[in-house]
Amino acid sequence: MAFNFFKKSEPKKEEQHSGPHYYDLKVKRVVNETKDAISIWFEQPQDKKIQYKSGQFLTLIIPIQGKEVRRAYSLCSSSFTDEDLVVAVKRVDNGLMSNWLPDNLKEGQMVKIMEPMGQFTTDYAHSNKRHIIMFAGGSGITPMLSIIKSLLTQESESIVSLIYCNRDIESIIFKDELSKWETKYEGRLHVIHVLDNAPMNWQGYSGLLNHEMLKKLFERIPDWGIDKSTYIMCGPEGMMKNVDTLLAQHNIPKEKIFKESFVQGTIDKDVKKETALASGEVKTREVVIRYDGQEHKVIVKPNDTILASALDQGVDLPYSCQSGLCTACRGKALSGQVKLDEEEGLSQSERAEGYVLTCVGHPMTDDVVIEIG
Ligand SMILES: Cc1cc2nc3c(=O)[nH]c(=O)nc-3n(C[C@H](O)[C@H](O)[C@H](O)COP(=O)(O)OP(=O)(O)OC[C@H]3O[C@@H](n4cnc5c(N)ncnc54)[C@H](O)[C@@H]3O)c2cc1C
Ligand code: FES
User: Would you say the CB of residue 252 lies under 6 angstroms from ligand 1?
Assistant: First the structure.
C-alpha cells in the first residue's frame, strides 16, 4: 500500500503561465456549505480530462490586490465518483484568498489552476481488505471525503472510520453528504462527530479529544488489528499534535500514521534560518535546476530560498504553499547539500532519497543540482 501520506512571499511580478502544468477551469457552481465554508465546482476541460488521485490538491492562482496569489485546496471530489473537480474553502481570519473566494468568485468565471499534486494518496485495489481510521478537523475533511468515496467504491472489502472534530454543529462541512455515504455503505463507513461546543440535546461526543475519549471512540469503531489498519489525519495544528500524542499512547506505530498539514506549525523556521545564517553556513551560491527538459542556473542569496530566487530570476518553477507543506515544489538533489527550514512536508524515506523542497531550501555547497518533476 502506498499511502504516501505522509512564509509566504508572493512573486514580485505578475507571471504568464501556460503549458502542460496549468489549466484554465470554468467555475460551474459555488455552494455555501456552512456559514464560513464554500465548495467550488470546476468543469473538467472538454478536450482532456484532468487526472488526479484522492488526497491531492489543486493550486488556485488568482490575481488579488495586484498580486498573483496561489493557495492549495485539497480536492473533495473523487475521480471514481464525480464528474467535476470540487474543492472546499473555509474562511481564515484575515486570510487573503480564503475570504476573497467566497466574497468574489462567481459561476462562469475562469480560474487558473496548477495541475493536481500531493503525496497524501493511496492506490486502490479490489483485492485490498483494510481499515482506514481518519481524524479530521474543520476544513481537513476535504481530502478525507475524497478518499472515503474512492475507498468505498473501489475496495468492497475495506472499511473507513472517520472521527471528525468541529467547533459546533453549524460548522460541520459535508455533514449531510457524509450521512448519505454512511447510509449507502452501512457497516463500511462509521462517522463519529466530536464538537467543542455541543448543544443540550447532542447525543455524540463533545470536548477536546483526550486519552479517555479516544479509548471510548476506539471501542465504537471496528478493531481489525494493527496490520490491517492505517491512521490518517488532517486538521488544525493543535488537533494533529494531540491526535499524534494519543495514538502514541495507544501504541500505534509511527509508520501506520500519515498526516496532511494545511498550515505551517509554530515551530519557527525563521529561528532555524537565523541559526544557519549566524553560523555562516548559508552563503550566496549558484544552483542548477533541471525542469521540463531545461537547465537553469539560479543565484541564491543567503536570505532567499531556492524557489524565491528562481522566481525572481524569471524561472517558472512549480509551487503552491511556499511553506514546506504541500510538496508542489519538490525536487531531487542529484548532487550537493540543501538545508531545509522546514522538513515536515517530506517523509523520512523521501529525505533519505535526496528529495528537497525548493520553497524552504538553501544550498549549503557549491555543487547543488536539483531535478524537478
Ligand atoms: C496541501 C494543502 C491543502 C489545503 N487544502 C485546503 C482545503 O481543502 N480547504 C481549505 O480551506 N484550506 C486548505 N488549505 C489551506 C489553504 O491553502 C490556505 O492556506 C488557506 O485558505 C488560508 O489562505 P489565505 O490566503 O486566506 O490566508 P493567508 O492570507 O495566507 O494567511 C492569513 C493568516 O492565517 C493563517 N492561516 C493560514 N491558513 C490557515 C488555516 N488553514 N487555519 C488557520 N490559520 C491559517 C496564516 O498563518 C496567516 O497568519 C490547504 C493547504 C495546503 C498546504
Ligand atoms: S510550495 Fe508547498 S512545499 Fe514548497
Answer: no
Cα 120 to Cα 238: distance, rounded to the nearest angstrom: 20
- The CATH code for residues 131-260 is 3.40.50.80
- Kind of pairing between the strands at 159-166 and 189-195: parallel
Are 37 and 141 a contacting pair, CB within 8 Å? no
Task: Starting from the CA of residue 350, give the closest ligand.
Answer: 2
Q: Stretch 328-353: mean pLDDT, rounded?
A: 91
Sequence ranges of the domains in the chain: 131-260, 269-372
Is residue 279 over pLDDT 70? no
206-241 pLDDT, tens digit each: 988 888 899 899 999 999 999 999 999 999 999 999
Closest ligand to Cα 305: 2
Amino acid at 362: H
Residue 67 has pLDDT above 80, yes or no: yes
Q: CB of 73 closer than 6 A to ligand 1? A: yes
Candidate of 60, 74, 320 to mutate for ligand 2, largest count of ligand atoms within 8 Å of Cβ: 320
Identify the residues whose C-beta falls under 6 Å from ligand 2: 319-322, 324-329, 345, 357, 359
Q: Which residue has the CA at smallest separation from atom 21 of ligand 1?
A: 98
Q: Does domain 269-372 have CATH number 3.10.20.30?
A: yes
pTM of the predicted structure, to 2 decimals: 0.90
- Closest ligand to C-alpha of residue 94 is 1
